[in-house]
Design goal:
The protein is an alpha/beta fold. It has three domains: about 120 residues, no CATH class; about 200 residues, 3-Layer(aba) Sandwich (Rossmann fold); about 170 residues, Glycogen Phosphorylase B (Rossmann fold, 3-Layer(aba) Sandwich). It is about 50% helix and about 10% strand. The strands form two sheets. The chain has a six-stranded parallel sheet with strand order 2-1-3-4-5-6, sandwiched between helices. α17 packs across α20. The two termini are about 55 Å apart. InterPro entries: Diacylglyc_glucosyltr_N, Glyco_trans_28_C, Glycosyltransf_28_UgtP. Pfam families: Glyco_tran_28_C, MGDG_synth. It is an enzyme of class 2 (transferase). Its EC number is 2.4.1.46.
């Protein structure tokens, strides 16, 4: 037996003895003292100093929520000791394995008692909780855009979690509420009725108080579990009830959690988007700024940066010829994109068939069907007289959109914002009542597109744009780029990060 193996056995015995001592000490503390500790770190004078003497870095790293269950404080007591013991144990096990494989001598000075670097990064990161609901693809896309923006700018310094509180943390039947979205969208008169009847403050606040009585306990547990430094809402139904739930946690919170809203509509917004208790409210246009002010928000609460769009749209993807070749398309063919939204809704088939009657072999069509797999199979099986590329849900939407000359889509705010950034003329073929209706005059008045729900008129418009070649597309493209806000996501993310730093330092 060589000296290294003797050393490993000796240290293994010492470590085992140290751990038994530590476990006995924790059990003794649990029995003899009533601990008022949070998860993993004391926030009171138990550690021999007041909260005022804690450094700024420690104040950020320590949990925000006080744990009401003492047993968890016991488990978290002196958690660094556990890490040191585990680190030593793993180090010596690794040393023995390394030596037994005959890979050469090992320098004992290289073995560190500190936790792995990955653990340090996770501990020192700020936690952001992004609230959304699965009602269409736009809210989820905005939440993901913010998460990607944090990663692009700050790496893993921010831990962003996206949560649908209604679907995942609400009892029946509230957990099925997001599913009603698709039924309402397919019946526009019901959507309009629901939208307008819930606009009065007395109506929606009464409803939200009823919801809060049912779900506040579950929502509070979610906030305690995620323990965020900042909460960001990207959905109109994720303001009032979460804020009521946070109010119930006030006595258990070491410091109030800042709550912000990122509005994902371009023009007309439901009043539930705006709550006076939010720290900041990010909006996309001056139209929404006026609406927020009329509903009681202060000018100091409102920031207008634009709509949060996936960061890939902020980076030039390349020339159209290059992108078309990369995506397997004809390099020199005029290209029109037909989008059915995240769920592949709308008159996609009818419009595609009318386009096939009017476009020639010098043109090509890209159809994005989203998550509608049956539509993908149906259109892919069809024999087309010209080049047609049928896709489902794509993650490189910025590349597909940048390689096109124009886009046909419903009046969803996200797709409009993406098209403006790419400088692509827009043909709107429909809208969700109320909240998207204002997007149609927004496009028309800024002269960046047209509107029609008739597949024949839509196909004729595309054919006219492509055949005339009189500069109409180029003029609309230039105006679209002026309206686009490619840095909106990054600006919002920087402001959110600044709020966290100023709030906890």
């Amino acid at each position: 037996m060589d000296s290294t193996q003797v050393l490993c056995k000796k240290d293994a015995f010492v470590l085992n003895f140290e751990f038994k001592q530590y476990r006995a000490r924790v059990n003794h503390v649990a029995r003899e003292r009533s601990l008022n500790l949070s998860f993993g770190r004391s926030q009171g004078p138990e550690r021999g100093r007041n909260a005022e003497t804690v450094t700024a870095k420690e104040r950020v790293n320590r949990p925000i929520l006080n744990n009401p269950f003492p047993i968890w404080g016991t488990v978290g007591f002196e958690v660094n000791t556990i890490r040191q013991l585990a680190s030593k144990q793993l180090a010596f096990i690794g040393l023995a394995t390394h030596k037994s494989r005959g890979s050469g001598d090992t320098n004992l000075s290289e073995i560190s008692d500190s936790p792995p670097k990955k653990d340090i990064t996770v501990e020192s990161s700020y936690r952001v909780l992004c609230l959304m609901s699965h009602t269409g693809g736009g809210h989820k896309a905005s939440a993901q855009a913010l998460k990607d923006g944090f990663e692009c700018i700050y790496g893993n310094s921010y831990d962003v979690n996206i949560v649908d509180l209604w679907s995942s943390h609400s009892p029946w039947p509230l957990c099925n509420m997001p599913k009603s979205y698709f039924f309402l969208v397919k019946n526009p008169w019901l959507w309009r009725l629901n939208f307008r009847c819930s606009e009065p403050k007395i109506v929606h606040e009464t409803l939200f108080r009823g919801y809060a009585a049912i779900v506040s306990t579950q929502f509070s547990r979610v906030f305690m579990d995620y323990n965020p430094h900042l909460i960001v809402s990207v959905h109109p139904l994720m303001q009032h009830v979460p804020l009521m739930s946070l109010e119930r946690l006030r006595d258990k919170v070491a410091k109030p959690i800042p709550f912000t809203t990122v509005v994902t509509d371009l023009t007309r917004c439901h009043p539930t988007w705006f709550h006076k208790s939010v720290l900041k409210c990010f909006v996309a246009t001056k139209i929404v700024v006026s609406q927020a002010l009329s509903l009681g928000l202060k000018t100091t609460q409102i920031i207008c940066h634009g709509l949060p769009i996936r960061p890939s749209f902020s980076i030039p993807a390349g020339t159209r010829a290059y992108l078309r070749e990369k995506l397997g398309m004809q390099k020199d063919a005029r290209t029109v994109m037909l989008i059915g939204g995240g769920e592949g809704m709308g008159k996609i088939t009818e419009i595609a068939e009318e386009l096939s009657k009017r476009l020639s072999e010098t043109h090509q069509l890209v159809i994005i069907c989203g998550n509608n797999r049956s539509l993908v199979e149906k259109l892919s099986a069809k024999i087309w007289p010209f080049s047609v590329h049928v896709k489902g849900f794509v993650h490189n939407m910025s590349e597909y959109m940048s390689c096109c000359d124009c886009v046909i889509t419903k009046a969803g705010p996200g797709t409009i914002a993406e098209a403006l950034i790419c400088g692509i003329p827009i043909i709107l073929n429909g809208c969700i009542p109320c909240q998207e209706e204002g997007n149609i005059p927004f496009v028309l008045e800024n002269k960046v597109g047209t509107y029609s729900e008739d597949p024949v008129i839509i196909a004729n418009t595309v054919s006219e744009w492509f055949d005339k070649n009189d500069g109409t597309l180029e003029e609309m493209s230039a105006r679209a780029k002026l309206l686009g806000r490619p840095d909106a996501t990054f600006n919002i993310v920087r402001d959110l990060a600044g709020m966290i730093l100023s709030f906890y330092h």
